[in-house]
Specification:
By secondary structure, chain A is of the alpha/beta class. Chain A has ten helices and ten strands. The longest helix of chain A has 14 residues. By secondary structure, chain B is mainly alpha-helical. Classes of the chains: A alpha/beta, B mainly alpha.
Chain lengths: ~270, ~220
């Protein structure tokens, strides 16, 4: 994919994909976020490579979801939020005034804790974003919808009832529909904020399997309170505490031999 | 509020140390039975091996229960290492039983006239075992690393005893059966030292998260 995330400005063609240059896909540098006077994120610096799963872990209020939302500027929607530092995706600062935020969110999709399908049919849920981004042809739409539902491992379960209400699906199916909706518009990065926390173990396992499949094509950042889930699905893990990045490294290392005592105490359940 | 997982870990450590004391005792008594030609003591070691076997089963069961709680970091290493230490202790018990069986057979035969440094070898193997368990309890990976090179001393003593026995068999063919009993006992002590070395390596992994097995030279230097 060779599209820039800043179509409004006339910049050199830049690849979101970082593999050729060896530059990380996401570069977070000295990022601080303030809610009014309160500093919720403190000088976070973190680089994430493409097509891997990164887990953000830490106790409630540590800033992990706030940081996740910085990656597609969802915090812009909150009053009184101020940001210092930079977040670059594909080498471009996403907080540059010239950035088209809608276009950014097309490139950086999001799946939330609680599945939030539109009160429409399964078909329309996936078609909505596609139409918004200019896909109107019915045949093309049908193909893309099938592709997205297959990509989210949901096609076989819903192919005979595409025009039934999405609200009739189970919780796990609704969450996979939201993933299908997110991947329909072909993002490169998918942000997931506790995507399985409201699901039963079987639905959770399906979502986890799906995440492992999706990382062949997408870069995934997931916030989770479930450390076993982070251990099962992520390649690297970042541990946050009180708005600071305490430790970042390969998931295997973080969960068997963390370098920092705070991380050790958290993953062994001594606090949090 | 009581932390049930921590309580489970404490129980695991306690069981492991009790099992270790039984294993140490078995080795001590088997060597004593051998050297002092004590038939009754040899029989007791054999019977006590069942206790060690039972500990292995109980520890495995406890480890499985603790693993269902998906421990991480030091807790994960502790649980997995406990299982391996228990396996080594069970094998030490088996070796002690082998020595006791040879002690039983030898006690019913006249002694051979050869100088064998078996008590020294037993002392070295037992010191290694004790030191490896102390390193486990004291979280002392440097002490655990220091145990590993000592295995070579035990190997050398075993070889020396082997050579003395071969020479003795050549010169006194009527003692071959008895000499073979001594050889097996010596080999068992050498294996006990190997198991103590395994435990020391596991202790290094537990407290340093460094797997030093099969790495050739066992560097006794602790990384900074």
């Amino acid at each position: 994919m060779a599209e820039t995330i800043m179509p409004k400005v006339n910049l050199p063609e830049a690849k979101m994909n970082s593999s050729a240059s060896g530059v990380p896909l996401i570069e977070i540098e000295q990022l601080s976020l303030f809610y009014g006077a309160s500093k919720a994120l403190k000088d976070i610096s973190l680089n994430l490579d493409e097509k891997i799963v990164t887990a953000f872990i830490g106790p409630s209020g540590c800033g992990k979801s706030t940081l996740l939302r910085c990656l597609n500027r969802m915090n812009d929607l909150i009053d009184n939020v101020r940001i210092e530092g930079s977040v670059k995706i594909g080498g471009h600062d996403i907080y540059d005034a010239a950035v088209d935020v809608i276009e950014l969110r097309k490139r950086v999709g999001m799946v939330f804790q609680k599945s939030n399908p539109f009160p429409k049919s399964i078909y329309e849920n996936v078609a909505y974003g596609l139409r918004l981004h200019g896909k109107q042809n019915k045949t093309e739409l049908g193909g893309l919808i099938e592709q997205s539902l297959r990509g989210a491992a949901l096609w076989d379960e819903v192919k005979d009832r595409l025009h039934s209400s999405a609200l009739g699906l189970s919780g796990g199916q609704q969450q996979r529909l939201c993933i299908a909706r997110a991947i329909a518009i072909k993002p490169e990065i998918i942000l997931m904020d506790e995507p399985a926390s409201a699901l039963d173990p079987i639905a959770t396992a399906r979502v986890e399997e799906l995440i492992l499949e999706l990382k062949k094509d997408y870069t995934i950042v997931i916030v989770t309170h479930n450390m076993q889930q982070a251990a099962r699905i992520s390649d690297q893990t970042a541990f946050f505490y009180l708005g600071e990045l305490v430790e970042f490294g390969a998931t295997g290392k973080i969960f068997t031999n963390p370098a920092k005592k705070q991380t050790e105490d958290y993953v062994t359940g001594r606090f949090g | 509020m009581e932390n049930h997982f921590e309580t489970g870990l404490d129980t695991l450590k306690q069981k492991l140390l009790t099992m270790a004391s039984h294993a140490e005792n078995a080795v001590n008594q088997s060597v004593q039975a051998l050297v002092q030609r004590d038939l009754d003591l040899a029989m007791r070691v054999k019977e006590d091996d069942r206790v060690i076997d039972q500990f292995e089963v109980e520890i495995d069961d406890l480890v499985i229960q603790l693993l269902t709680k998906a421990p991480l970091a030091t807790n994960l290493r502790l649980v997995t290492v406990a299982m391996k230490i228990s396996q080594n202790l069970e094998r030490i018990g088996d070796e002690a039983t082998k020595i006791a069986k040879r002690a039983r057979d030898l006690a019913q035969e006249p002694p051979i006239k050869a100088t064998l440094d078996l008590p020294r070898m037993a002392g070295l193997a037992l010191d290694m075992l004790k030191a490896s368990l102390d390193a486990f309890v004291n979280r002392d990976s440097a002490a655990a690393r220091a145990i590993i090179p000592r295995d070579k001393e035990v190997d050398a003593l075993n070889k020396q005893i082997h050579n003395v026995l071969v020479q003795h068999m050549v010169e006194n063919p009527d003692t071959i059966a008895r000499c073979l009993h001594w050889m097996v006992a010596s080999k068992s002590l050498e294996r006990i030292a190997d198991h103590a070395t395994n435990i020391a390596e596991d202790v290094v992994y537990l407290w340093e998260a460094q797997d030093i097995r099969h790495t050739g030279a066992k560097n006794p230097v602790v990384p900074a």
